[in-house]
Amino acid sequence: MFSFTKSISATALVVAALSSLAANVVAWHDVAVAELQCKDFCGTFTFSEGSLSKGKYQTLINVKVDRSNPAEHYMWHIHDNPVAAGDQTCECNSVGGHFNPTKIPEGTKCDPSCAVDTCHMGDLAGVYGNITGGSYTGKFEGKKLNLYTPTKLAQAGTSIVVHDCNGKKVCCGTINLVKDVKGNPVLRGSSTKKN
């Protein structure tokens, strides 16, 4: 079950912790969260967007995994669709393919040094590396991502999907805006549980 209070508290900590990564950010706003709570994986993915002084934006990604298989290395991606309410098989079949609004051709090898040209926008493992098993915390600058235009990450109804090393979907959760520009709560997140 999604804990709205827990996510807002976690979001406040994320914004404070990541401020050192983005000293040139004038103001933080727009927070989106995906809560993943499954039998073998439990974590929170938070996206915070900051306004830069020259009218540009920066998105910061915080990953906090509380429980996962310590022997596993997980791939993580943003997928095109939210987790459907009727996705009772817990196989995350409703999430579609990788989020790829810039239409990078399928099969293009993701090279993090030139991610804008070679990586699907949703290929977070390709750009930032896999999530290691057990408890895990990671902080990343999402240079290609933004919560609104042109990529519309949160508004597009996307999801986070975690895969095992063989590519099998382990857990997924819809990315939802939880705060608006003024810091007001707007939506609650959702997750798919595997039993």
Automatic annotation (TrEMBL):
Pfam families: Sod_Cu (PF00080). It is an enzyme of class 1 (oxidoreductase). Its EC number is 1.15.1.1. InterPro entries: SOD-like_Cu/Zn_dom_sf (IPR036423), SOD_Cu/Zn_/chaperone (IPR024134), SOD_Cu_Zn_dom (IPR001424). Residues 1-27 form the signal peptide. Keywords: Oxidoreductase, Signal. Residues 43-164 form the Superoxide dismutase copper/zinc binding domain. One of its GO terms (molecular function) is copper ion binding. Coiled coil: none annotated. This is Superoxide dismutase. It comes from Mycoemilia scoparia.
